[in-house]
Specification:
alpha/beta; two-stranded parallel ribbon; 9 helices; 270 residues; 21% strand; 14 strands
Length: 270
């Protein structure tokens, strides 16, 4: 099994590239990957980690279509990394299954990802779509902080000693440690099956617990809520994915351990 990774600078691309036991792979920047002549001839599976900025704004991108077309011509499977945001924003806490229709309220990013999914499913046969939950890890960057839950949290904790939420600390969301994500992705890369699959913990963790465990590992800090009545909870149902790929179940201790390690690492940063 040999894989081609497209996109070299993203958080997830760096994580899988440096993880232990990662499948034999090649890496190409997203622009070089547009030319089929740059592709290795013996790649069995292709996965795209690159995202055009316009997707964040809600606009359709044909990058995945172009890569999937070249993969088809080479006889390789294609994996798209999608997002749980394609399910939209439910009015009540929700458990999302792959067949759950999008809610009428959808973020621009989720709308664009949904359009890309539909394009791939209509035009290609052997495409695997992974709808990712909140994949988290050590995301501290004081100069260019990642606009993610953990990226903002770690920056605020380091600079002000305070983690501020604009939601209830009891909000339950599906969090998956990046180390487990890379383990599971390696399993999927070895035998990708066509279709849509959720990829998350399969249970919710209160955002307040995430903050509490990071603070515990860091050894200092406090949590502040500015909008304690706002709740936007979700969980990805993992039954279909676990059955297809024989993935193990996770538990709350897996999330807690990852958070403690992140806090400890943050403490070592000057």
């Amino acid at each position: 099994m040999k894989a081609l990774f497209i996109g070299q600078s993203s958080f997830l691309a760096n994580a899988i590239h440096t993880a232990e036991n990662t499948v034999e792979h090649y890496s190409l920047g997203h622009e070089k990957a547009l030319l089929a002549g740059n592709w290795p001839h013996n790649a069995n599976v292709v996965i795209n980690f690159a995202t055009e900025p316009r997707v964040r704004d809600g606009s359709f991108s044909n990058l995945d279509h172009k890569y999937a077309r070249i993969a088809k011509e080479r006889g390789a499977a294609y994996i798209m990394l999608s997002s749980r945001t394609v399910y939209g924003i439910p009015e009540d806490p929700a458990e999302f299954l792959e067949q759950t229709p999008p809610h009428k309220t959808m973020l621009p990013y989720g709308h664009a990802k949904h359009l890309i999914e539909e394009d791939l499913m209509q035009n290609f046969d052997h495409v695997t779509i992974l709808r990712l939950s909140n994949i988290f890890g050590f995301e501290y960057n004081p100069n260019q902080p990642r606009p993610t839950f953990l990226g903002v949290m770690l920056k605020n904790l380091k600079e002000s000693g305070t983690i501020t939420f604009n939601m209830s600390s009891q909000t339950q969301r599906d969090f998956l440690p990046v180390s487990i994500f890379t383990d599971w992705l390696n399993i999927i890369l070895r035998d990708p099956q066509p279709g849509i699959y959720n990829l998350g913990a399969g249970f919710g963790t209160a955002v307040g617990d995430i903050a509490k465990w990071v603070i515990e590992g860091y050894g200092a800090g406090r949590l502040k809520n500015t909008k304690p009545d706002v709740i936007d909870s979700f969980v990805l149902n993992m039954a279909h994915t676990r059955k297809t790929y024989s993935l193990p179940r996770l538990y709350s201790d897996n999330i807690r351990t990852a958070c403690l390690d992140i806090g400890k690492k943050l403490k070592t940063i000057e």
